[in-house]
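TL;DR need structure tokens for one chain.
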Amino acid sequence: MDVATQESFEEWKHHPVTKRLMKMLTSDRENMKEGLVNNSFEDEQEIKGRCRAIAILLNIEYEDLFEKPIEKKAVQS
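>> reply
TL;DR here they are.
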């Protein structure tokens, strides 16, 4: 598997195909939000989840590609 570098991420983010995909996702999300306002959907929770997922993709940063360690909470006696 190829290593994801900061440079390759930036190339991907500025690639014409990625830009087109992000534009499509933005448009889809706006249409879904408008549909929510107009009560156009039977399952609003599903649409809200889709909107959140698209927002994550639209705002992804290089650092987001790597798992963050889960902090262990101290066990209280």
